[in-house]
Specification:
five-stranded antiparallel beta sheet; about 50% helix; Alpha-Beta Plaits; SH3 type barrels; about 325 residues; 7 helices
């Protein structure tokens, strides 16, 4: 004898038809219609959105941690490689520059990763709400074409800023020439622009995309170039010998020994013209220290030439110069 089977009858109340999946189970367990409606509504949209936000937050934290550790490894590797650099090529700011560069790249990469995570989470939430992503993408395409012409300079600046950081063209504290009159010390570098301050205190904001070429005057090491113009009647050999002595004394000075990194290279006669005889000497210095070294070197040369009665070019004659050694026509 066949036993007739009775089809199962759903116990879900009718009011749960338009709510989420949790309405029926909660009503079966509690018998409370209000609680079942609330829990069902929460399970349909807000709970999913909260889950998406939580997932995006955790994903962003995890990605940021990975990028931060990668940046730290870059800095550590740079320090280890710096140990193989010969002492004559080593600079005071080498390690600190590598650490700062790694930190800058890590910060930029974390910002980009956060923007990507937020965009994906926003698209996911819109899909849960029921907004058509296809329509949004189509609208964004039309708007993007309209804005693309106006934003192309911004994109160019951002790409140029990224390569400035990656290629280490310059960093904060460097003295650069970004095209006259924007010549000075870099105070801030972003993906959009570079801010620098010139010797007069003027702050220049230069879009990275506008920097066609840049001269870095303080990367790794610098060089002081000093030209001294002496009178045609001066003993050139003696004047050059004094230049070398002044440079050697400057390098052994306790105050300047950490700044001047090479012996003076007296190149001799650089130019002969109506003004006199130009003598040139060069010294290697720590990054960005060439300007104070040049000023101190000139001051010492002036004092040494005064003591040695070496006449400078022009109507000026050093104090105490022997009258027989003065240029003709001077009094």
């Amino acid at each position: 004898m066949r036993v007739a089977t009775i089809p199962a009858v759903s116990t879900d109340p009718g009011f749960c038809a338009d709510t989420g999946w949790a309405c029926g189970p909660v009503f079966d367990a509690t018998g409370n219609e209000t609680l079942a409606r609330v829990v069902g509504w929460l399970s349909e949209k807000p709970l999913q959105i909260a889950g998406i936000l939580a997932f995006a937050y955790l994903a962003n934290r995890a990605i940021s941690m990975v990028i931060k550790r990668a940046g730290q490894r870059m800095a550590d590797n740079a320090d280890r490689l710096g140990g193989y650099v010969p002492d004559r090529l080593r600079t005071q700011r080498l390690d600190g520059r590598a650490v700062a560069r790694a930190a800058t790249m890590s910060t930029i990469a974390r910002s980009i990763a956060t923007a990507v995570v937020v965009s994906v989470a926003a698209a996911w939430i819109l899909a849960v709400i029921g907004v058509s992503l296809a329509a949004i993408v189509a609208s964004a395409g039309v708007v993007g074409v309209a804005l693309g012409f106006g934003a192309q300079n911004l994109v160019r600046d951002v790409l140029a800023g990224w390569f400035i950081v990656v290629e280490d063209r310059y960093g904060v504290g460097d003295v650069i020439d970004a095209g006259a009159p924007a010549v000075g010390t870099v105070e801030r570098v972003t993906l959009r622009s570079t801010r620098l301050r010139d010797i007069n205190g003027t702050v220049w904001h230069v879009a990275n995309g506008e920097i066609v070429r840049v001269g870095n005057k303080s990367q790794s090491w610098s060089r002081a170039v000093v030209d001294i113009v002496v009178s045609p009647e001066a003993d050139v050999d003696r004047a050059c010998r004094i230049l070398g002595e002044v440079g050697a004394t400057l390098r052994t000075d306790d105050e300047w020994s950490e700044v001047v990194t090479s012996d003076p290279n007296v190149m001799g006669v650089q130019r002969i013209d109506a003004l006199g005889v130009t003598l040139r000497v060069v010294l290697d210095t720590a990054p960005g220290e060439q300007f104070p070294v040049e000023r101190e070197y000139r001051r010492r040369v002036l004092r040494s030439y005064d003591d040695a009665h070496v006449p400078l070019a022009g109507p000026y004659s050093p104090a105490g110069l022997d009258p027989s050694q003065r240029p003709q026509g001077s009094t």
